[in-house]
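>> received
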Amino acid sequence: MAASPLKRKLAAILAADAVGYSRLMGANEEGTMKILSAHRAVIDGIIEFHEGRIISTAGDSVLAEFASPVEAVRCAVEIQDALKTRNDSLPEDQRLQFRIGVNLGDVMAKGEDLLGDGVNVAARLESIAEPGGICVSSSIYDQISGKLDLGFVDIGDQSLKNIQRPIHVYRVDRESRSAPGASAMQTSRPGTATWLAGALAAIVVAAVLAWYFDLLPVSRQAERAGVPAPAADERARMEADLAKARAEAKQANQRAEAEAATAAQAKRALEEQRAAETRARAEAELARARAEAEGTRRKADAELARASETRRTAEADAKAAAAVKPPEAPRTAPVTAEAPRTRVEKQTPTSIPSRRYAGRWAAAFSCPASGELSAFNPNVRFSVTDDTFIVQYGERDQPGSFRLHGVAEPDGRLQFVGGGISRRRQSFGQAYSSDFDG
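>> returned
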């Protein structure tokens, strides 16, 4: 049997999601992005401090994995405390609160991703938590009971969306504390305050300093009154606590600096993205304007070329009409022409009637084979208006077409002038001129 690519393991899953994110984005998109970036920097830093691993981040949500349920809950509490401090400094309409759910369960690892019921339960616990609150499953509660100085509210079995079985849920009450016991007393010592947020760490430092320096005068007063001073081991313990508090304050300061750097980096990235979008829009507008200008120029060039061709044709027609004299000869028989620049055989009537040539005529052209062109013998119909013969063969201005003009002389002689468009291979599409008598 082939080995499955999925690996199973037991993990504590923390799921966090922003409350009212879409509403805030609709009211102030840029401001909300800045606040979210700053909050995310705090959340990511606290998760890393508690040795958690961020599985995925989608918009305003975070999913993280912890090896220890105690560290997962400590991380959740510290995140909410730190975000409360940040939100208290913001206007009420700009506060961005998170809900957190924590679950301990069997999950499937596929590469860097985690899948399975353990992840889904954590996400559903987050959805029923209050804004700024934390909900944990009974599997988490059983592991951390008596190990953290926290209060819990049992809210009973809950039917979660898409989860087939009911889940027993506890709500973390950060305002109260669990009943004092051996474990609780141990975890309430000053040395276990490493999970507090940066702001709380500073408060601890101030409290320890005040306690330490206030104790010295009391010790001196006790010596003057004949009461023994505190033992050396007690002083050593106080100095160790003070050093530990200083280290915690230093770590809190480093986290605050990292948060500020991350926020600044997010701001720069947002500004660069907006600048790139603006630049892309400007380039697209410029390209569109260039394309429109090029299309207009080509259209204008085509119109100008057509106008020039029309003008040249009109000038040629005018010159041809001016070069011939008004005919006075009677109507002659249809003309048979061979090709441009050749003479046309005509049938001469025995008598020349004294009348005009107005009407429609037909002519037979006989063009012998030449080079790569085969013999060409078209029958052409043409008209006569005001004794001016106008012959048009083929579609005007197309290869193989020609146009001729002529006026009959009194003696019946007909001279044509004009031109056409070549269909020869070497000169295909080129214009030529032609004149011949008939």
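>> DSSP finds eight helices and 16 strands in the chain.
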